[in-house]
Amino acid sequence: MIMLLTGMLATAVLAGGVLALAALGEVLAERVGVTNLGVEGLMALGAVTAVMTVSSVHSPWVGLLVAIMVGAVGGMVFAFGAVVMRANQVLCGLATTFMGLGLSTALGHSYAGQPVETTFGHVSIPLLSSLPIIGPALFGQNILIIPIYVLLPLAVHFIMFRTRHGLNMRAVGENPAAADAAGIPVMAMRFWYVTLGGAMAGMAGGYLTLTYVPVWSEGMVAGRGWIALALVIFAGYRPVIVTLSALLFGLVTALSFVGQAHNWPIDPAFLNMLPYIGTMAFIIVPVVVWHRMRRVMAAPAALAQPYYRDVR
Amino acid sequence: MATRAFQRLPTAPAGRILALRLVAIAVSLCIIAGVLALSGHSPAMLAELILRSTLGSRFGLEDLMLFMCPLLLTGAAVTVCGTIGLWNIGAEGQFYAGAIAATGVALGLHGPVLVVLPLMTIAGILGGMAWITVPTLARAYAGVNEIITTLLLNFIASLLTYYLTTGPWRDRISGAQVSTQRLSVSMPEMWGIVHWGFPVAIMIVVGLALVLSRTRWGYEIRMGGANPEAARYAGIPVRLRIISVMLLSGGLAGLAGMFEVAGTVHRLQGGMANNFGYLGIVVAVLARGSCLNVIPAALLMALILDSGIVMQTQQLSASVILAITGLILFMIAIGDELAHYRPVATTPAKGKA
After folding, report:
1. Residue A128 lies in a domain
2. Is A281 on the interface with B (CB under 8 A)?
3. CB neighbours of B47 closer than 8 A, spacing ≥ 6?
4. Domain boundaries along the sequence of chain B
5. For A56-78, b where at least 16 C-beta lie within 10 A, e where not — what string?
6. Which range marks the domain in which residue A255 is found?
7. How many distinct structural domains can be found in chain A?
8. CA-nearest residue of chain A to B152?
């Protein structure tokens, strides 16, 4: 039983990391009032460029860095359309996803199916990794776990809710006209946070191929970008909660692995549906059960609305 | 900041939109040609080959119509949903659900074509409707974002198709992978390999345009989309209208799946939706909320898909088409926004920021 729990938690932490990164990046973008539906495509681009990089430069850090940069450039392309040109955010996001998925498949054609040799290796932190159940999961896997689950969310939380810059940032998402009047650069704020969110989506893709699933194949992102978007809504646009829900979500994924490993009498196809069914339940059930949820976890007021200074 | 050379209009004139879209497509084509040239292909030769083998040949034209058929229906599905201000990103899943339901009828019932085919049609429509039921109710009664719920169901539908075609319904006769056996019933052909689903789809799109513009129901839908608060105040049951529109949308996408199974592929296959559901979104965007515009929009999209086949013969990956579609969609989104701006011939503004 302890073995099972330890194994499940380890898988959950590993699988949830992809979602935690992408969802945290999306929290940044949505808090300044921009819905980036391109996460799925940016993740695919990050995943494939990480694989391509490490096949010639044998360093996982360089691979991750390239994935981050590619994600940032993709985020900038999206932000150019959705923020600078003020085009429809849903369309720009879908277009970014199409471009990302199409390009990543075309780029990764000759890398498909080959195992990635350079990945983030196992790191075990002495003492902490021998803690029961949570030790191996948090301190005995790879070096990125602690930054993803602890450092990044806490840093984002601190900046967003404890600094003046964070207050400005949230003002841009709630009421851009008032923020503009107060001298906050609305466009710059939106552009750079969307870019940062894109960089984190790219990093999530790189993390996916450099730790969790070390092989590139077409369609391997498999809706994780969309699940991350759903988690942002579920977590009410809060950085720490979104990270915890990514972990909870990792557990759902781990459940389907455990089921396959223990030969549960359910077809693997149905076990593979669990993450998607779980996400649906995540975003529907709380609202149905607890009606106030919609107000407590409300979206930023100006979400998905382009800002025009001269139109009133 | 001193001069304001452009003024933003609340609604963009149609002529300007058309002009800017042509510019957007031209810009996209230039970017694509540039990328192709850089990767060692000759864009001019490729363009000639594409034109010759799509519009210039009988087979190309037949393929074009076969591609148009599902695109018309999925495009209409996204368009009707858009009329009430909602996004149905799940046409892909509803397409699979319709295809699965229709295949189930064809595999389970053995009878004359005149009985089985209508039953398959009904099953396809109901399958698509069933697939959108949960997002519909969640949207109507709990206000849950329909973009994400409809989209997640796509993955579930695709996994279900995979399960059926490798498990209980797998082809035991010819042993084809991830596929059912060839169905005994098929849609009658009309012109070459083009089946009767094509004219039916055109008729459905025209009919929908009439219903949306000429009936009370259509008016209430349009009003609910334009201003939900005013619609509610005027006594329109917006919630019921949302439910009926979303179910209609799911049914249309399901019908597309049924046509594809019965007319084109003749079996249920993994991956048979071929992104038709997602491309339906592009068709709907191109159509700008008008059902009649869905016809030329589907034609353009079918042309792009058709040229994808040609590009595959030239050692270009089929996924390039998805990237190209994305690029065109992106450029058109920007073009549509720019169409709102009108140059204003004024001297530098005085004192006003």
Report:
1. no
2. no
3. B33
4. 67-295
5. eeeebeebbbbbbbbbbbbbbbb
6. 2-110+139-296
7. 1
8. A276
Tell me if chain A has a CB within 8 Å of the CB of B176: no
Which chain A residues contact residue B327 at CB under 8 A?
Answer: 95, 99
Residue B170 has a CB neighbour count (10 Å cut-off) of: 16
A210 part of a folded domain: yes
Asked whether B219 and B234 are in contact (CB, 8 A), the reply is: no
Residue A303 lies in a domain: no
Query: What backbone phi and psi angles, to 5 degrees, belong to A97?
Result: -65, -45
Q: How far is CA A18 from the centre of its chain?
A: 6
- The single-letter code of the amino acid at B20 is L
Q: Which residues of A touch B25 (CB under 8 A)?
A: none
User: For residue A39, is it within any domain?
Assistant: yes
pLDDT (mean) for A85-90? 90
B336 to A87: CB separation less than 8 angstroms, yes or no: yes
pLDDT at A240: 94
Interface test with chain B among A26, A94, A234, by most B beta carbons within 10 Å: A94
Q: Which of A95-109, A119-133, A245-259 has the highest mean pLDDT?
A: A95-109
Say which of B4, B134, B162 has its CB closest to residue A310: B4
Confidence bin at B352 (pLDDT 50/70/90)? very low
Answer yes or no: do A105 and B317 touch at CB < 8 A: yes
pLDDT at B5 over 80: no
Q: By CB neighbour count within 10 A (0-12 exposed, 13-18 middle, 19+ buried), where does A262 fall? A: exposed
pLDDT in tens, A262-305: 777 788 888 888 889 988 988 888 888 877 766 777 888 888 88
